[in-house]
Design goal:
Largest sheet of chain B: 2 strands, antiparallel
Largest sheet of chain A: none
Oligomer: heterodimer
CATH superfamily of chain A: F1F0 ATP synthase subunit C
CATH architecture of chain A: Up-down Bundle
Shape of chain B: globular
Strand order of the largest sheet of chain B: 1-2
Largest interface: A-B, 17 and 19 residues
Helix content of chain B: 55-70%
Strand content of chain A: under 5%
Number of strands of chain B: 2
Distance between the termini of chain B: 52 Å
Number of helices of chain A: 2
Radius of gyration of chain B: 20 Å
Number of domains of chain A: 1
Radius of gyration of chain A: 19 Å
Chain lengths: 83, 235
């Protein structure tokens, strides 16, 4: 009984972790991409540099989502609360 | 615990090789990472064995890779220190890139092992933790070597009450390096395997290509951050 309760709570927790972790970086990446397009439109010759920096900063933002995913995966596959 | 799997996907199952009673090794991680190390060493030894003034063939490729890692170290560490730490940064970059790509490019599915499956060594958290701890050790060592005991002055800058935060940072840096690489690679392989279990043909290919791209970016980021952390303590 307790085990199934823990399992259900873990599944919900995993879904919430991934879902909420996606929101912030989504907004951030949208902002960054918009600013980068603006920069390229204003200064097309700087496209290569802007793209490189954009991809690097995308990866940093994505890392935040990935933390949520790591929490979700550990809840689903390596749950410390199930005896 | 009874596991209930909706599809045949397992995360975190390993092929345990018992070393002695209290210690065991993850066989598949060690095997694949040795293959990666051997392949990279072979490539570098063969490519640099017959250097010519006008490069051709493999030497061209290696020169491009050298320029890339030198660029990473140079932009972070500056002209006077980059040469000291270039070997570390380059090793980390090549190993992470090699391991990430080895999981996707080599058809490991053809080799059956009793437990777990062969894949990128970086999808085992022990590999990435080891790389992250190596980075920590390197920047401590760099700080002590270049600044001596004045290294500890870093902890009370810009002000004394930031001391706890500076100490916590020493732990969060390797932790975030670790989880970033591990999570990205696991997420990538998990996406591919979920798609493969749904539609085995043709549909997963674009995701695999995206995964190759993302894992090369992760190698770039890991080495850039390692260089940046070293630069932070020696500036």
């Amino acid at each position: 009984m307790v085990d199934s309760l823990v399992a259900a709570a873990s599944v919900i927790g995993a879904a919430v972790a991934v879902g909420f972790a996606g929101i912030g970086p989504g907004i951030g990446q949208g902002n960054a991409a918009g600013q980068a397009v603006e920069g390229i439109a204003r200064q097309p010759e700087a496209e290569g540099k802007i793209r490189g920096t954009l991809l690097l900063s995308f990866a940093f933002m994505e890392a935040l989502t990935i933390y949520g995913l790591v929490v979700a995966l550990s809840l689903l596959f390596a749950n410390p609360f199930v005896g | 615990m009874h596991t209930f799997l909706l599809s045949k996907i397992e995360v975190g199952s390993h092929f345990y090789v018992n070393f002695n009673e209290s210690a065991h090794l993850h066989g598949e991680t060690i095997f694949v990472s040795s293959v990666v190390v051997a392949l990279i060493s072979l490539l570098l030894i063969v490519g640099t064995s017959n250097l010519k003034r006008v490069p051709e063939g493999l030497q061209n490729v290696l020169e491009v890779i050298y320029e890339l890692v030198k660029g990473i170290a140079f932009t972070q560490l500056g002209p006077s220190f980059y040469a000291q730490f270039l070997p570390f940064v380059a090793t980390v970059f090549l190993f992470v890139l090699g391991s990430n790509w080895a999981g996707a490019l080599i058809p490991w599915k053809l080799i059956e092992i009793p437990q777990g499956e062969l894949g990128a060594p970086t999808n085992d958290i022990n590999t990435t933790a080891c790389l992250a701890i190596l980075t920590s050790v390197t920047y401590f060592f760099a700080g002590f070597k270049i600044k001596g005991l004045g290294y500890f002055g870093r902890y009370i800058k810009p002000s004394v009450f930031l001391l706890p935060i500076n100490i916590i940072e020493d732990f969060t840096k390797p932790l975030s390096l670790n989880f970033r690489l591990f999570g990205n690679i696991v997420a990538d392989e998990l996406t591919v395997s979920v798609l493969c279990s749904l539609v085995p043909i043709l549909i997963p290919v674009p995701i695999m290509v995206l995964g190759l791209f993302a894992s090369s970016i992760q190698a770039l980021i890991f080495s850039t951050l390692a260089a940046a952390y070293i630069a932070e303590v020696i500036e």
